[in-house]
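User: Predict Beta-lactamase-related domain-containing protein's structure from this.
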Amino acid sequence: MTRNHLPGGADLEEYGRPVFAEVSYAGIGFGLGFAVVEDAAKTKSLTSKGEYNWGGAASTAFWVDPAEELTVVFLTQLLPSNTHPIRTRLKQLVYQALVD
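Assistant:
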């Protein structure tokens, strides 16, 4: 469920381009219902291998990062969702606030 199910271990970048997403699809696979990080370096964002996530039309988002023992659910109603990089900024703030 939380592993990449795309043929040959491909990433989403090989299947399309992000129209409404705030980030590229490089290094991102697809599990059963959500994106799965396969290569954290390729994503060029703060993340861990094995993180799974998805975003909604009105800027909603969730992600689970097992490596950091982190779960985030963000609910808002901002349309269109690509007007402001709110999800990207939220992720930056959350990861910058982590203390080991």
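The radius of gyration is 13 Å.
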